[in-house]
């Protein structure tokens, strides 16, 4: 599948439609779906008004078969996508991102989010606390998920 064009991405951003994002184990990148249809395979995504969803039946199947399947998603409105993994490094309450050898502080982090179907029923904070609310911004960078505030200085 080819990536969506810049104009298609801008239409999706401006539409306010909810997208669902998950890590694609076969492609080693993210898959982004709109109404159940995969529309792009970016390496990093920024979403707003974010909710974390786990389908219980899909998780039960993972536990029964001991084989991963697509059943956990980060859902929200698209803000930005990146065609390559952001090379990030921590800074005080944030992440520096490098794209095309240009570094900027791209995200003020509140906490990291993790999900392991063998250990947890839902996504959790890296501190072990449960997640219940909607979050303003989330950065998904390859397999890492961060909640915080997006700083729109770094664009592709």
Description of the molecule:
The protein is mainly β. It has one domain. Helix content is 13%, strand content 51%. The protein has two helices and eleven strands. Strands 1, 2, 3, 4, 5, 6, 7, 8, 9, 10 and 11 form an eleven-stranded antiparallel β-sheet that branches. The two termini are 20 Å apart.
Mean pLDDT: 81
Q: Can you count the beta strands? A: 11
Tell me the helix content: 10-25%
Largest sheet features? 11 strands, antiparallel
Report strand %.
Answer: over 45%
First-residue to last-residue Cα separation: 20 Å
Which structural class matches the secondary elements?
mainly beta
N-to-C series of helices and strands: HEEEEHEEEEEEE
Number of helices: 2
Shape: globular
Number of domains: 1
**Regions with pLDDT < 50 over 5+ consecutive residues?**
none
What gyration radius follows from the Cα positions, in whole Å? Answer: 15 Å
Explain the layout of strands and helices:
Elements: H1 6-15, E1 18-24, E2 29-34, E3 37-40, E4 44-54, H2 56-65, E5 72-82, E6 87-91, E7 94-99, E8 102-114, E9 124-125, E10 135-141, E11 144-150
Antiparallel strand pairs: 1-2, 1-5, 2-3, 4-5, 4-10, 6-7, 7-8, 8-9, 8-11, 10-11
């Amino acid at each position: 599948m080819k990536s969506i064009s810049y104009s298609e991405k801008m239409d999706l951003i401006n539409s306010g439609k909810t997208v669902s994002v998950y890590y694609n184990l076969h492609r080693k990148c993210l898959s982004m779906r709109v109404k159940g249809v995969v529309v792009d395979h970016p390496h990093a995504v920024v979403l707003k008004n974010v909710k974390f969803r786990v389908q219980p039946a899909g998780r039960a199947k993972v536990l029964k078969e001991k084989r991963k399947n697509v059943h956990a998603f980060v859902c929200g409105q698209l803000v930005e996508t990146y065609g390559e993994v952001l090379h990030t490094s921590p800074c005080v309450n944030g992440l520096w991102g490098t794209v095309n050898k240009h570094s900027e502080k791209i995200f003020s982090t509140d906490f990291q989010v993790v999900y392991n179907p063998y250990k947890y029923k839902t996504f959790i904070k890296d501190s072990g606390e449960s997640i219940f609310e909607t979050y303003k911004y989330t950065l998904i960078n390859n397999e890492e998920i961060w909640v915080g505030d997006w700083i729109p200085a770094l664009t592709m």
